[in-house]
Amino acid sequence: MAARLIRLQFIMACLLGVLALRLVHLQVIRGGHYRSLAERNRLRVVPQPAPRGLILDRRGRVLASTQTLFRVALIPQELDDLAGLLARLGPILRRSPETLHRTFLKERTYAFVPVTVASHVPKEIALQLEEERWRLPGLLVQAEAARHYPLGSTAAQLLGYLSQPTEEELPRLKPYGVQPKHLVGRAGLERFLDADLRGRPGGMVVEVNHRGRQIRLIGQRPSQPGERVTLTLDAALQSLIEQSFAAQPGAAVVLNPWTGAVLAMASTPTFSPEAFAVQDTPQVQALLTDEVNRPLVNRATLAAYQPGSIAKLATAAAALNYHVITPSTAIPCGGELTIGDRVFHCWNRDGHGPLNLSEALLHSCNVYFMTLGRWVRKDRLVAALAQAGWGRKTGWALGEQAGHLPSRRLTEGEMALLAIGQGELLATPLQVAVTAAAFATQGSLVQPWVVGSVGSRTLDGSTATRRVHWPAETFEAVRAGMIEVVRHPEGTGRRAFTPAISIAGKTGTAQTHIPDKTHAWFIGFCPVDHPRLAFAVMAEYGGSGGDLPAEIARAACEYAAATTPNPEP
């Protein structure tokens, strides 16, 4: 009996020893770790996203803001009858209870964190649910901030759009408070200025009990809205140009020729950036997969086209600079030009007869400028195009194509085509608008910019202006021809004429790989004596530059005449 008692005492001592060792391990060796876990189980952080900053045009019109939408959420710890609640919500939200249940299971995280089962709920439904909420335990109707674009699709490609961060982006953005469901800038200014527009998220720290129920609020930090951004863009001018394109694909850029400030940058067809903001999945998917119209592509900066006859301005400048001709030099046009065994036709098969430079520009005579192309060597002509801003990027901060200038040796026939803007020559509407600004100011090659201020910081891109070192006589001779293009009754740009303001311009009709389909250009500046606008308008497969592009340019200049009566130096 005594031996059995001793064995029992020994076993008890061993068990107590093991228990003591375990307590020492838990409380001393691993005590800090478990205290940390307990603290984290006791405290919860409820994030609060920050509203994105406003984007305004130069006159204070709101281009992007924050709107109030409503979402319906369920609080897991307060639910008594989930199935019954979903059955009552389904008809009101026009969704099946099964769909709502799947959403609930997918989105659920912690017991105290509301689970969103329906977003972007119409206001009238949100009010109806709020009135019934006392009968529906666990239901929560919340207002939330979402991106809103009051002018619809106006300047959509320039503004850009939002989307959820990718798995690759999320680790980089998490230190700034970005969560998987948050929306971040994906294109345009929304992406370029995302860090400024995003603001600083806030949140609450709450204490919960062992069942996950909230006990009290420990602390709170309010979110801070993003910075306000003011652009150089004129929303009314932008809208006017976009509406003038109607269903015609194309692009237009309007600059202040002295500073490079972008007053309008249109690309059509356009799209609604709000579809991305409210996450309208069917509409977003349609936009992302539209390879025919490519509405998300900013044609003004990311699409390069053959320029056609607008290149004749650089051809004329090269011929004048190297004294190949004078403004009064007459070159006959019989309707065609033979080079080797090839015959190149003028657009006027009957010919224009003998023409000087101004007459050749107003009629856009191909034979005249093909002849100049033969007389001006390839390196000189390409150099003139490069000096005018072609074949390289303009410095546009939001991304652009560089266009293309030929680098290989060209035949005499290829040189003739290059002189009239055909062959190995590509340019973006933005590049061409910069060229127009150079002729408007007689030599200022500006760098385009559009962000005027971010918060309290004022930005100015005009310091990036460079010079085109051509003689003043060259600019004067070419400008004289551009004036006649619009003013003369027989000028190819006559449809741009308006008594409201003087306009200088040049039409361009560029052949494409599709027979009888041409890109249509009109570039220039206004008013002639004190230019306030320099512009490039391009209609993709739009026929003649003297038609729709000239009309759009006229509308833009008439707007300038009506809104800015005094010339800006």
Shape: elongated
Tell me the Rg in angstroms.
34 Å
Give the helix tally: 21
CATH architecture of the largest domain: 3-Layer(aba) Sandwich
Please tell me the total number of domains. 3
The helix content is 25-40%
> In this structure, how is the largest beta sheet organized?
7 strands, mixed
Instruction: Look up the CATH topology of the largest domain.
Output: Beta-lactamase
Low-confidence stretches: none
Mean pLDDT: 86
* Name of the CATH first level of the largest domain: Alpha Beta
- Residues in β-strands, percent: 15-25%
Task: Explain what the structure shows.
- The protein has 569 residues and is an alpha+beta fold.
- It folds into three domains: 103 residues, Penicillin-binding protein 2a (Domain 2) (Alpha-Beta Complex), CATH 3.90.1310; 76 residues, Ribosomal Protein L30, Chain: A (2-Layer Sandwich), CATH 3.30.1390; 279 residues, DD-peptidase/beta-lactamase superfamily (Beta-lactamase, 3-Layer(aba) Sandwich), CATH 3.40.710.
- It is built from 21 helices and 23 strands.
- The strands form seven sheets. Strands 2, 3, 4, 5, 10, 18 and 19 form a seven-stranded mixed sheet that branches.
- A hairpin with a 2-residue loop joins strand 18 and strand 19.
- It is elongated and about 135 Å long.
